[in-house]
Structure formats: C-alpha cells, structure tokens
Amino acid sequence: MPGAVFRRGDRVTLRTVEREDAAFVQRGHNVPEVAVPLGVNRPENEAEAEASIEDHEGDPLNVGLLVCLEDGDEPTPVGKVSLMDLHHTRPELSYWVLPEYQGEGYGTEAVEVLVDYAFEAHEIRGLQAQAFAPNEGSVGVLESLGFTHEGTLRDARFRDGEYVDVVWYGLLREEWEDD
Length: 179
Hints:
By secondary structure, the chain is an alpha+beta fold. The relative contact order is 0.15. A hairpin with a 7-residue loop joins strand 4 (about 75-85) and strand 5 (about 90-95). Helix content is about 35%, strand content about 35%. The strands form two sheets. It has a five-stranded antiparallel β-sheet with strand order 1-2-3-4-5, with helices on both faces. Strands 6-8-7 form a three-stranded antiparallel β-sheet. The chain has a single domain (about 5-179), classed as Aminopeptidase, CATH 3.40.630.30.
C-alpha cells in the first residue's frame, strides 16, 4: 500500500513509495504501454522491482512518488513520478501512468505537483526530461506544462523493433515562476 501523502493536487496525491509497492511498480514496468515508452527492454520480476525501490528511493539525490487517486478508504496507485540527480543544476524528471488511467490528465497534474515541489524545495536552475519522439502523450505533458524542446538525439534508442529519436525538454525556474 502506498505510503504517506507527500503532496496533494486537485485530483491526485503523491505518496511515498514503500517496499510493499513493488508489485505495483513491477506491473507498471511490465505492461507494454508503459514499458516501451520508458525504454524498459526486459521483464522485471517483483524482487527486481523491490531492489529498484530500495536503490532509488533510498538515495537522497532522488525523489520517487506514487501517483494515487483517493477514491475510497484506500488510495489507488495509478502511476509514478520521479526526480533524479537533485545535486545537478537541472535534475531529470520522469513519469508514467498505467494505460487504463492515461488520457485523463492524471499524469499532467502529478508532474505539475512534482515540478512545484522541485522549485519550492530545491535550489535548482531548472528541470529536464526526455521522451521517445513517437510518445505523443509524454511530449504533450511536457509541452502543456511549459517545457521547451531543447534537442533531438536521432535514432538514439532501440524500441519496439526500431530505432527512434529521443527528444529532450527543459524548463527553467523563471519560466515556471512566470506562469
């Protein structure tokens, strides 16, 4: 079960990732609609998901949070958002939402809440994120929140049987604060 509420949006809460969430993380990393856009190219078992949680969430330079809907007695996890390398001037942002919850705006809201937190709590210059160019949903999240396309790495990753471009997006502190 997801941990404590860390931040709240209008429709989603961001909760700490606990060891008991390994089965949920494993599910997300194995469903093709999440795994392929994330670049996960091999199956992940629950023990690997648990080790990943311990390595990533235990690192003070990373923040990983479950995206949850509060629709009853228990929160329903629908995705995950992360900040990585908080010691950099521009940490990297990543996110995913299970397919059955995509297209509802939950990912955009969760990323927005995480970006607010990043700029409020950390002395960073900006944020960066990458996506596979064909992943219109992920690119749409970034563009809707004011991220700027900063570059394209052509044929940078092998995904789903072909090479695809990776697009990089960035957002500077003043661009976020001006909105």
